[in-house]
Amino acid sequence: MRQDGAIGLRRLSRGHALVVGGTGMLRGVVTWLAEQGWAASVVARGRERLLALRDEAEGLDGSIRPIPVDYRDSGALRAELLSAVRSAGPIRLAVCWIHSTAPEAPGVVAEVLRRQSTPCRYFRVRGSPARDPSVPDSHDALLHGMGPPLLYRRVILGFRRDDGGSRWLTDSEMASGVIEAVRGDSERTMVGTTEPWSARP
After folding, report:
1. In a domain, 2, yes or no
2. Which one of 90, 110, 121, 151 is separated from 141 by 20 to 30 angstroms, measured CA to CA?
3. Comparing 166 with 129, which gets the higher pLDDT?
4. If you ran DSSP here, which 8-state letter would residue 195 be given?
5. 6: pLDDT strictly greater than 60
6. b/e 140-179 (16+ beta carbons within 10 angstroms → b)
7. Residue 97: half-sphere exposure toward Cβ, Cα within 13 Å
């Protein structure tokens, strides 16, 4: 379900996108954004992997701007994101896979995005434990309640059940699921399943 005032993704093509954690399982999301014409700023710790990803985008309609920073350092992350906005313009789309080792990072990203007057869709990608009702997430509640110009979306990565068993999603399946979530622009998207919770690998 789209929030009121949301701008269709087609109108946002060739804008500035942010991907946090884009050299791992979100790598396919980054290259897809570049193929669609986005200028993607990508946050990751590994400089060499970022540069290799940037080189992959050569010849595509869009581009990749590496941001080699450890997102556990809130001050450095904030400074780099603000610099990216100054260099490439307002961020219109953010896709973030942030580990629990950096509990402040989701809020830092939201803070920078809310400084803009331009609406931004913020897709926070979560692992299947986020579906566990016994694990509350105060950040999700906070981000969801912020409202425009931050349009918060949540993507839960589950698992696959097959042949009487279960397995975790592959990087390709996760990237494809996140891409479909961005295309569909739903407030909440499940990739795979988390039901029953007891069947997780």
Report:
1. no
2. 90
3. 166
4. -
5. no
6. eeebbebeebbbbbbbbbbbebeeeebeebeeebbbbbbb
7. 20
Is-contact 95 125, C-beta < 8 A?
A: yes
Token pair belonging to 157: 């990565």
Residues 151-196 have pLDDT tens digits of 889 899 999 998 778 999 999 999 999 999 999 998 889 999 988 8
Q: Computed from CA positions of residues 168, 169, 171, 177, in that sequence, does the dihedral angle turn out positive or negative?
A: negative
Q: What is the pTM of this model?
A: 0.85
Judge whether 92 and 116 are in contact, CB under 8 Å. Answer: no
Specify if 3 maps to a domain.
Answer: no
- Per the structure, the count of domains in the chain is 1
| Structural domain containing residue 127 | 9-199
